[in-house]
Design goal:
The protein has helices spanning 11-26, 30-45, 87-95, 168-220, 244-250, 254-257, 262-265, 271-276, 323-337, 347-357, 380-389, 475-482, 484-501, 525-539, 567-584, and strands spanning 47-55, 61-68, 84-85, 98-100, 103-106, 139-145, 151-160, 225-230, 239-242, 283-289, 295-307, 311-321, 464-473, 507-512, 515-523, 543-545, 548-550, 553-561. The protein is α+β, with helices and mostly antiparallel strands. Helix content is 35%, strand content 21%. It is built from 15 helices and 18 strands. A 7-stranded antiparallel sheet has the order 3-2-1-7-6-5-4.
Length: 602
């Protein structure tokens, strides 16, 4: 028995304590658990008021729940709800209190230890008469700790209904209750954290589903082609997903595309470009095969989709249709290097082709020039222009644009004609490809002459690069009599006839005005004379222009191009030989150039 005459064990109190502990564990939220703690302290342990100060994330303690048996006229502990006290002040107050087991008791005479920032109230009970009487300014505190020893909060109780300071039974019951309260608060916090985590997870999953749906719609309904490619395993490079736009672009069903790789679809000439295109941020303009057998110009742009834990997962490729742009590019390239009237290579293109065939070093010994061989390397766009004609020409209706001359565009060519003049000079030795075969002037057997006239010299061969200069006779009179429209019609017809005579791989170029030049590689002297005769025979028959029958003649000069010669030298020799023939037939003198209607262009 204690001094206050409370029995050591009170069956009714135990029953009440058991009930309030059950209420603690039945609470579903942290706020409900805290409220159950203060109500249990009041109803189960015999106190008139109780409050719980909960530790916040920043370490300070906030009054989170209060309960009073009978509300005081001046407000009681309810006024403390939401007030905050610093952790430092609370710890100082606990350190100077009396230790009653795990409880802390601060008598009224040590009120100086209560910090000004600690929420507190003074009850309206009577002042003590005896030493064990409860003083309204007394503090009884029950710190609550987690299983790891961290402070969760402090349960404060006031005004025991017995009017005495708690005895051994009440202290032990309060310790037991605070321990159960600590467990209940910890569980409630855990549940709250789990609920928040589940809410975050659900929100993230909703965001992920929304993102996946947005990606699906963006992928499926994109106006341009989209494809997802496998990056790992046996399916590396396999198209695992394609959208409708890509299927329409290539004219292939989805099931067929998903069984292929881009390497299976790319044009053979573009396969190496595809292999060089990097996965991340790679970009390439190339051709993909269509179901109808043609090829589609596309621009591929790659992006790697990576997983934060596993790294790159798959490759997302954007496939843009650039057919129309490529068509215009080829048109511009063709216009820059070809005569607008006749469609023949122009003067700049003629010089460019000669420059790519010749080098600046004259051959020092016997050499041979293979018949019809092509000794220069065609760049990508020359072959691509020819390929484009197979599925969408940009010339006149029914025509196909190609480069049949055998002289490829110079490497890196993408500028206007003015920037291409540098290609009109013979290449220096350092610029000559390793497989370059020197152009050598063929020997003229059984004849003598000057250096360019055909005398045998070191390095001569049976075949070479013939340059046949063609100047129309009587063209000026047609212009003067019938106008430039008729003259243009004559030039177009002459160009057509010349192209019909030359071999595949030969070049027919319009030098300017009424002057044309034919380049014939891998040809002997007799063959060149025969070709010149056939050119003359093709030109001189009458032609029907604007419902008029007219005809022109032609003066021809055969020159030969050899490595070590400049381009101007080559053209000058052919020009001189043409004038030799013109003079021999009684044509105009060199100084007058009376038959020429235009100066040479380029």
């Amino acid at each position: 028995m204690e001094a206050e005459s409370e029995p050591y064990v009170r069956l009714a109190t135990l029953r009440t304590l058991h009930r309030v502990v059950a209420d603690l564990n039945a609470a579903r939220s942290l706020a409900g658990t805290l409220q159950a703690v203060v109500e249990g302290a009041v109803h189960g342990l015999g106190f008139d008021a109780a409050a719980v100060s909960l530790v916040r994330p920043d370490g300070d303690l906030v009054v989170a729940a209060v309960w009073e048996l009978e509300e005081s006229a001046f407000g009681g502990p309810a006024v403390l709800l939401g007030q905050v006290g610093s952790r430092e002040s609370w710890e100082r107050m606990l350190s100077v209190s009396d230790h009653w087991g795990t409880l802390r008791f601060l008598p009224y005479d040590r009120g100086w230890a209560i910090g000004t920032d600690i929420p507190s109230w003074v009850g309206d009970g009577p002042l003590p008469v005896y030493a064990n009487d409860w003083h309204p300014a007394d503090f009884l505190l029950a710190p609550m700790y987690s299983a790891g020893g961290d402070l969760l909060g402090i349960l404060s109780v006031d005004r025991p209904r017995s009017g005495k300071r708690p005895g051994a039974w009440t202290r032990e019951a309060l310790e037991m209750f605070s321990l159960q309260a600590s467990i209940a608060i910890g569980n409630a916090r855990l549940r709250a954290e789990m609920q928040r985590a589940l809410a975050r997870l659900e929100k993230e999953q909703q965001a992920l589903r929304a993102s996946e749906e947005s990606f699906r719609q963006a992928f499926e309904y994109a106006p341009s082609g989209m494809a997802i490619t496998e990056l790992h395993g046996a399916g590396n490079g396999q198209l695992t997903r394609v959208n409708d736009a890509l299927c329409r672009l290539l004219g292939r069903p989805r099931a067929t595309l998903r069984q292929q790789r881009f390497a299976d679809l790319v044009h053979p000439e573009d396969l190496e470009l595809l292999r060089r295109t990097s996965a991340e941020g790679g970009r390439a303009e190339l051709r993909l095969s269509r179901r109808d057998g043609g090829y589609q110009w596309v621009c591929l742009r790659n992006s790697v989709v990576a997983d934060a834990a596993e790294g790159p997962s798959f490759l997302l490729t954007h496939v843009e249709d650039i057919e129309e742009r490529k068509r215009h590019e080829f048109q511009l390239a063709h216009r820059a290097s070809h005569d607008a009237l006749t469609g023949l290579p122009n003067s700049a293109e003629l010089r460019s082709r000669l420059g790519r065939r010749l080098c600046g070093q004259a051959p020092g010994g016997p050499a041979s020039v293979p018949d019809q061989d092509r000794h220069d390397t065609e760049p990508a766009y020359a072959g691509q222009t020819a390929a484009y004609g197979a599925h969408g020409a940009f010339g006149p209706p029914g025509s196909q644009v190609a480069l049949p001359h055998g002289y490829g565009q110079p490497d890196g060519f993408d500028g206007p004609p003015g920037e291409r003049e540098q290609f009109g000079r013979p290449r220096e030795c350092s610029e000559v490809p390793a497989d370059h075969v020197h152009a050598v002037i063929p020997a003229e057997l059984g004849s003598g002459g000057d250096l360019w006239g055909g005398s045998v010299r070191p390095g001569t061969a049976e075949k070479g690069l013939a340059v046949i200069f063609c100047d129309l006779d009587g063209f000026k009179s047609i212009n003067d009599r019938f106008g430039h429209k008729a003259g243009d019609g004559v030039l177009i017809e002459v160009a057509r006839r010349l192209q019909q005579v030359v071999r595949e791989g030969d070049t027919v170029a319009r030098l300017g005005g009424d002057e044309f030049v034919v380049l014939a590689d891998g040809i002997g002297r007799e063959e060149a004379k025969d070709l010149a005769g056939r050119l003359r025979t093709a030109i001189i028959p009458p032609m029907r222009i604007d419902n008029r029958t007219t005809r022109v003649g032609v003066s021809l000069g055969i020159g030969w191009a050899g490595c070590g010669m400049s381009i101007e030298e080559v053209l000058h020799v052919a020009d001189e030989r043409m004038y030799d023939e013109k003079r021999a037939r009684g044509g105009p003198a060199r100084g007058t150039r009376g038959e020429r209607s235009h100066r040479r262009a380029g």
